[in-house]
Write a structure and sequence with these properties.
The chain is an all-alpha fold and 77 residues long. It has one domain. Helix 1 runs antiparallel to helix 2. The longest helix is centred in the N-terminal third of the chain and has 23 residues. Keywords: Membrane, Transmembrane, Transmembrane helix.
Length: 77
């Protein structure tokens, strides 16, 4: 619980430092990208702090490429 509050405090500081500059310079696209990436990072950080299992992206890649690897391996033998 304390780590979640800490993460949210850091996010609030990041928002306070970066968002006013983006709004003042009228960088709308950059503000959207910043917001989406900050939201994703915050969500993953809180999930990790709460010890929620986050799947490894490498597992997905292995699941996709393993059949192709087996097929090529079978052809080469």
């Amino acid at each position: 619980m304390l780590t979640t509050v800490g993460i949210l405090a850091v996010v609030a500081i990041i928002i306070a430092l970066d968002v006013p500059t983006l709004v003042r310079k009228k960088l709308r696209k950059e503000l959207w990208v910043f917001s989406i990436l900050l939201f994703l990072g915050t969500t993953l950080g809180i999930a990790q702090a709460l010890r929620i299992h986050i799947p490894n992206p490498m597992d997905f890649m292995i699941a996709v490429y393993k059949p192709i690897s087996n097929l090529i391996d079978a052809w080469l033998q």
